[in-house]
Amino acid sequence: MTRLLHIAASPRGDESESLALASTFLEVYRELHPEDEVAEWDLWDGTLPEFGPAAAAAKMDVFAGRTPTGPGAAAWQAARATFDRFAAADKYLFSVPMWNASVPYILKQFIDVVSQPGTVFGFDPDQGYSGLVTGRKAAVLYTSAVYGEGRAPSFGADFQSPFFDGWLRWAGITDLTTVELRPNLAVADPEARRARAHTEAIEAAKNF
């Protein structure tokens, strides 16, 4: 059975533009793929472990070929369990609002927790990094309230999609589909922009 995992980075519930796009995408996807399992992961639900001193020490132990011990062992186990939840999926849907020109900190926390040697990436001293999360595909729904391509620098910059697209490709996920709704605040005819983005989400779901 194919498993689609929706990873939500917005805490705004019914007020969230990215979650609304995800709802449109998933409604179509479920209709077209009734046999698939669709799972939801709200990154704000409190299940995401921190990645603090013990976890950082454990990561460096693993890099050095040592087995983490003490608090590091527990932190490493939590990071591995989080990765296993992520890696259990065949397809990913990410709903990603823009925060301060980049991604919400909870999504960066997720990335920092799962991006470990032997899980998301391999490393060779001569060849560098290699992504290990291969054979999967991802759809990313990007939103922003103020930033939009072609707007003046005073409306912000995009460190959101280059960062997150870059992480996905670095992890080995190269089959990417993106839908953008930006900007959606203080612009002419925001409903037309919104309708266009939802239409694009429908088409993305049909081809996912």
From TrEMBL:
Protein EC: 1.6.5.-, 1.7.1.17
InterPro entries on file: Flavodoxin_fold, Flavoprotein-like_sf, FMN-dep_NADH:Q_OxRdtase_AzoR1, NADH:quinone_OxRdtase_FMN_depd
Cofactor remark from the record: Binds 1 FMN per subunit.
Domain Flavodoxin-like fold: 3-200
Catalytic activity, as annotated: N,N-dimethyl-1,4-phenylenediamine + anthranilate + 2 NAD(+) = 2-(4-dimethylaminophenyl)diazenylbenzoate + 2 NADH + 2 H(+); 2 a quinone + NADH + H(+) = 2 a 1,4-benzosemiquinone + NAD(+)
Recorded superkingdom: Bacteria
Keyword line: Flavoprotein, FMN, NAD, Oxidoreductase
Listed cofactors: FMN
Residue sites binding FMN per the record: S10, S16, E17, S18
Family affiliation: Belongs to the azoreductase type 1 family.
Function field: Quinone reductase that provides resistance to thiol-specific stress caused by electrophilic quinones. Also exhibits azoreductase activity. Catalyzes the reductive cleavage of the azo bond in aromatic azo compounds to the corresponding amines.
Subunit structure: Homodimer.
Name this polypeptide is given: FMN dependent NADH:quinone oxidoreductase
Record gene name: azoR
